[in-house]
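Lecture notes, unit on binding sites. The following record was shown on slide 14. It pairs a sequence with pyridoxal-5'-phosphate.
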Amino acid sequence: MIDLRSDTVTKPDEEMREVARDAAVGDDVYGEDPTVNELEARAADLVGKEAALYVPTGTMGNQVAARVHTEHGQEVLADRQSHVVKYELGGLAQHSGLQVRMLDADPNGVPTPEQVADGYVAEDVHRPGTGLLCLENTHNARGGRAIPSGEIAAAAEAAHDHGVPVHLDGARVFNAAVALDVPVTDITEPVDSVMFCLSKGLGAPVGSMLAGSEEFVERARRTRKLFGGGMRQVGVIAGPGLRALENVDDLATDHENARVLADGLDSVAGLSVAEPETNIVLADVAETGLDAAAVIDRLRDHEVLATQFGPTTVRFCTHRDVDREDVETAVDRVATALE
Ligand SMILES: *Cc1c(COP(=O)(O)O)cnc(C)c1O
């Protein structure tokens, strides 16, 4: 089976398992887990922020950030296709009493400064006020688009002009930095907080990081506890997370494999595939006469796994557990499956 559903399917390698076994641990709720402390310091340093917090999932990182940045009842500006809007169970409303003002940030998911300014709502007797702008890079639902740092900076500046803080859902922000060939700090510098996942292309079994100012992270630590995410001897998973940070450069290989995959899939009759910018490949299957669910069923019968991303859109994701040969084999199998 060639599993291209997501980069989250990556399994910890032998080295990570050894790191897990040997990790120094302590009670992290008391701040006594040395491995977590090292991971938090290293993560903060990497993205150029004062501090960072280890969280079990990217979703918790985004939700904690939104809670800390806002007051109950405020509005959040976010792209209609963003993960916080589409895939987090309406958590902004459920956890923090927030109302989302959705922006159609075409084509790559970053609102223009004008869209941010238009979407901004000043607090008055009728209106709750805008409490947060949420950005995403790479942009998952828009096909792993790598957003240039200038666009992030422009949107962030427009929010800051109105006194609105900015959170970046950077689940795959290192994919963006590698694809754009810029230091990740170019992308994270303009935002007040950033979440990134260790558990996707970087290959760790569990965990994400939430970074920002000392004060932000101090408050985020309390909110993580409130959300049930205060963990104990968690160095056993933070250790592999530290090891995963050494895998950043390998993401370039995933991107190359994604281009090979996209190229191959695009030549399969009935599939239309845009050139990927990172490790996510979106295929439009409408011309096959099948819908995405039917295509995915057929692919499974031919030992290829992919994800439905729309009525006729199928997502394929490259990652460290598939190599060039797997990708080429996958293309052959897809061609056979759709014959
Ligand atoms: C995967 C993902 C998340 C959430 O990460 P989980 O660890 O699965 O909760 C958030 N944002 C984006 C863009 C993602 O792709």
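Take-home: The two ends are 19 Å apart (CA to CA).
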